[in-house]
Amino acid sequence: MATTRTASTHWEGTLFEGAGKVTLESSGIGSYDVSWPARAEESNGKTSPEELIAAAHSACFSMAFSNGLAKAGTPATSLDTSAEVDFVPGTGITQIRLRVRGTVEGISSEDFVAAAEAAKVGCPVSQALAAVEITLDAALA
């Protein structure tokens, strides 16, 4: 069964002088200010599409990795994942860097990295972003 999640944005003004508010509707956890300067320069307390993609990607990858490790008989005690999304005005998103550090009993570093690579490929957000170069740095904690 498919699930659908929703978010919306209300924008006023031009791209460069305007501003908007993104609302996470499905969860109801909040609304966040967005603007071009927050996207292309400093965030100054506002979010951007790229930060939201980074959040989605780090969460999705962590879920996929956790599942893969458990299925292999080496469930993770903990995984800490970050995602950095590069945005170049006029070009778009140019790269995503995932970084994961994990505590996993009974697994070698090589098997940890191989499982992380499989999770990167299998993660639905990675698949949705396949046109962008996604790198991964994986290591046991």
What does this structure look like?
The protein has a 3-stranded antiparallel beta sheet. By secondary structure, the protein is α+β, with helices and mostly antiparallel strands. It is elongated, with a radius of gyration of 17 Å. Helix content is 33%, strand content 37%. The relative contact order is 0.14.
Cross-sheet strand order for the largest sheet = 1-2-3
User: Biggest sheet, in brief?
Assistant: 3 strands, antiparallel
Specify the helix fraction band.
25-40%
Question: Element order, helices and strands?
Answer: EEEHHEEHHE
Number of strands: 6
Query: Mean of the pLDDT scores?
Result: 95
Q: What is the molecular shape?
A: elongated
Structural class: alpha+beta
How much of the sequence lies in strands comes to 35-45%
Low-confidence stretches: none
How widely separated are the two ends? Answer: 36 Å
Question: How many individual helices?
Answer: 4
Radius of gyration over all CA atoms, rounded: 17 Å
